[in-house]
Design a protein that fits this description.
Elements: E1 2-4, E2 9-12, H1 14-26, E3 29-31, E4 64-69, E5 75-76, E6 85-87, E7 93-102, E8 112-120, E9 138-147, E10 155-156, E11 159-169, E12 175-185, E13 190-199
Parallel strand pairs: 3-6
Antiparallel strand pairs: 1-2, 4-5, 4-7, 6-7, 7-11, 8-9, 8-12, 10-11, 12-13
Length: 202
């Protein structure tokens, strides 16, 4: 018999366990830690932190943002290396996302509002507004947070680099997936980045 509590496998035969684990791997799913994944989230799974109010700002250049992933450190994503969906031991799914933002003006106000979503569908494509799942997409999960208040931003020079942002998602299907992040500062500047990839091939 196999006992694998992190995958919810206990007291089943070897062949059955191998079949389950192989199937998860084929879908790009992994068995996450047995602990609550919110323990590893930068914000403890809170929906938002503090208030977010616009202010009058001098003329500024555009924000730049790069979508990323990673539980403990930022990594860039690509079609060959998309965010990894983890399969929790209680049957849920989640993914750790991240981002890198340039030209931030933290001397004006240290807060930014971040919207992340993951969706699927053969006609799914990024669109405006970027803080919503577009028409034609089946939403798997969406989350909006305010960072830089109670939880300070991770800053190096004029670049903010964050990881470990947990997004709970519905069971995914094979095929076309889109993952997106939008960042907005208190000056009203918006920047977004997204990735289109084929799920179940990695």
């Amino acid at each position: 018999m196999i006992h694998h509590p992190r995958c919810g496998l206990s007291g089943i035969g070897v062949a059955a366990a191998v079949a389950v684990l192989t199937g998860l791997a084929g879908l790009g799913l992994t068995c996450g830690p047995g602990e609550d994944p919110c323990d590893d989230d930068r914000l403890g799974c809170a929906a938002a932190q503090d208030s977010f109010d616009y202010i009058a700002c001098p003329e500024l250049g555009p924000l730049t943002v790069t979508l990323g992933a990673g539980q403990n450190s930022f990594r860039t994503v690509s079609e060959a290396s998309p965010p990894e969906i983890e399969f929790g031991f209680q049957g849920g799914q989640h993914v750790f996302l991240g981002f890198r933002v340039g030209d931030v003006q933290l001397d004006l106000d240290p807060k930014i509002r971040v919207t992340m979503w993951l969706a699927e569908g053969e006609d799914c494509s990024p669109g405006a507004p970027t803080n919503e799942v577009p028409i034609g997409c089946q939403s798997l999960g969406i989350r909006q947070v305010v960072m830089g208040g109670r939880v300070p931003l991770q800053v190096a020079g004029d670049v903010v680099e964050e990881s470990g942002l947990l997004l709970f998602v519905d069971p995914p299907s094979r095929g076309r997936h889109v993952v997106s992040v939008e960042v907005e500062d208190v000056c009203g500047r918006l920047a977004s980045d997204s990735l289109i990839y084929t799920y179940g091939e990695h």
